[in-house]
Specification:
The chain has a domain of about 60 residues. The chain has five helices and no strands. Helix 3 runs antiparallel to helix 4. The radius of gyration is 30 Å and the shape is flat.
Length: about 140
């Protein structure tokens, strides 16, 4: 009986150790899948760019058009940022004549809030503290 119990305990340990199911990776959200596809395409484009001599003329034209589009997007973003900075500097020149809300709006020009930002949701206490600090 004692040998049987020991044998059962050993069998239980063997079964427990062999019952390792492989963990499944969590499913990607649609946004993550889209980003993964963009990264794969970007890496392929970079590889093709570095292997320029072996590309067809159509692929070369496609790579150049993608690069031009990316440059234009960066340039537009830079121009938008410079325009916001100019508006901010204009507000700084007239700083003493601005109300507290207008001053805050001037600083919001430099770093506009993101649409899903947690900082947009503030309690009424936080807003009062900010106002008290600005008055001092």
């Amino acid at each position: 009986m004692k040998k049987l119990m020991i044998l059962m305990a050993v069998c239980c340990l063997v079964f427990a150790s062999c019952d390792n199911k492989q963990k499944e990776e969590p499913a990607l959200t649609p946004e993550q899948q889209e980003m993964a596809e963009k990264q794969k395409q970007f890496m392929k484009d970079r590889e093709d760019w570095n292997n320029w001599e072996n590309q067809t003329d159509e692929r070369k034209a496609e790579l150049l058009n993608k690069s031009k589009t990316a440059y234009e997007k960066r340039k537009a973003a830079q121009e938008e940022k410079e325009a916001r900075k100019a508006k901010f500097e204009e507000a700084l020149a007239n700083w003493d004549n601005l109300s507290l809300d207008e001053r805050r709006a001037a600083f919001d020009l430099l770093a506009p809030a993101k649409p899903n930002s947690k900082s947009e949701v503030k309690s009424s206490d936080e807003g009062d503290e900010t106002t008290d600090k600005d008055k001092k």
